[in-house]
Design brief:
About 30% of the residues lie in helices and about 30% in strands. The protein is an alpha+beta fold.
Length: about 400
């Protein structure tokens, strides 16, 4: 293979699909993470102790390892590091401007508005006094969220200025740059759009239906493919995806876009210039389409041609396991879950003995079940049945 060394930025469970796939492809694989106990380190060939947000540190890693490509999965802010490294070392990747547009939600929505991409109205909040000064101009209900975080962290529904003030500290603590976005609340089905951009054209590989906790935190509890919206809406989604990618300056590479279908029209919520998380692009896309999006992303980063041809027409789904707050005493029923036809994987983010918090963000979920069936509807039903077999006992 042309180019046989890849550096994966991060070594958490989010990066495991990339680490394993790179090794299966015969690549010498290095990971960089500030946590010397990160789960992915033992699966890689080399490990470098470096924060995923440390641009200068990552440049030093690249000078030592000399990779042919560099990537990350399902995490936003490290894309700024990767874009900087790619620019300095002439590696394949997105521009620094595109990385900023896709990781700062305020900059992102401005790009959407300036380029006519359907998106919610918004207000930027720089600090508490700024929030108070705009109290009379805000429209409710609204979504209040940090400008630069992911995984539903800090996202909350607010109904009035009193809610905004009460939730300010919670949202602010989740914002790396201290800025907050207050967006028009969009009502309707939520989807994600798994996309690969080649030469400035967005190729939609799959549309993903979502299930969330709903208000006030909107944590995602399940996904299924293919999307079950009508073909007219799917065509509109494809057009919005293409215009959104162009608006942020994404010319080549994977993208994960989130939209809400309101009054029959898709509107952008946000996007990342990287593969989606929650097992969507690493598991569901291959199971429903036969397109190994992880492999194609690795090939893109190495400067190799990508193959986006659909090989399957199946249904796939993932549902996430949750429990009430407390300490996990016992987990039972995994073997029974695997006996359900179509179950491909059961996994856990938390183990026996760990504390479980109330569901405020994706990090509060306990585990997942992944299923492949002939249709999305069948996959969802099998996923729910398998998940019901798993009993999580909380002390």
């Amino acid at each position: 293979m042309k180019g046989d060394k890849i550096l994966i930025v991060g070594a958490s469970i989010l990066q495991m699909p990339a680490i394993k796939r790179a090794k299966e492809m015969g690549l010498t694989t290095a990971v960089a993470d500030y946590n010397p106990n990160a789960v992915g380190i033992r699966f890689a060939d080399e490990y470098y102790n470096c924060s995923t947000l440390d641009k200068d540190g990552m440049l030093n890693v690249v000078e030592k390892f000399c990779p042919d490509g560099i990537m990350t999965m399902a995490t936003d802010l490290p894309m700024r590091t990767i874009a900087h490294v790619c620019m300095k070392k002439n590696l394949v990747g997105i521009s620094e401007e595109c990385a900023l547009n896709c990781t700062d939600k305020i900059q992102m929505i401005r790009c959407f508005k300036e380029n006519g991409v359907p998106s919610p109205n918004f207000e930027e909040i720089t600090d508490l006094s700024d929030l108070k000064s705009k109290a009379d101009t805000l429209q409710f209900p609204a979504i209040m969220k940090p400008a630069d975080n992911s995984g539903s962290r800090g996202v909350v529904l607010v109904h009035n200025i009193e809610d905004c003030l009460a939730q300010y500290d919670y949202v602010y603590e989740c914002s790396h740059n201290g800025k907050i976005l207050i967006e028009e609340y969009l009502s309707g089905p939520e989807v994600s759009v798994e996309t690969f951009v080649v030469g400035g054209k967005a190729h939609v590989l799959q549309v993903t239906d979502k299930v969330t906790t709903g208000a006030p935190y909107f944590v995602e509890l399940g996904h299924s493919q293919p999307g079950m919206l009508n073909q007219n809406i799917i065509e509109k989604i494809t057009a919005v995806a293409d215009s959104a990618c162009r608006a942020v300056g994404l010319i080549n590479g994977p993208a994960h876009l989130e939209m809400i279908i309101t009054e029959g029209e898709p509107k952008m919520v946000e996007m990342g210039a990287r593969m989606g998380g929650d097992c969507i692009t690493s598991h569901l896309v291959p199971l429903s389409t036969g397109i190994d999006m992880t492999e194609q992303t690795i090939r893109y980063c190495l400067g190799l041609p990508v193959n986006l041809n659909e090989k399957l027409h199946m249904g796939s789904a993932v549902c996430f396991l949750t429990a009430r707050a407390g300490r996990i005493k016992d987990i039972q029923g995994v073997e029974r879950a695997y006996r359900i036809d179509g179950v491909k994987e059961v996994g856990f983010f938390k183990q026996v003995g760990e504390e479980v918090a109330e569901i405020h963000s994706s990090s509060d979920r306990i585990g997942y079940v992944i299923v492949q069936k002939k249709s999305a509807k069948d996959a969802i039903a099998a996923c729910k049945k398998a998940a019901s077999k798993i009993k999580i006992h909380i002390a």
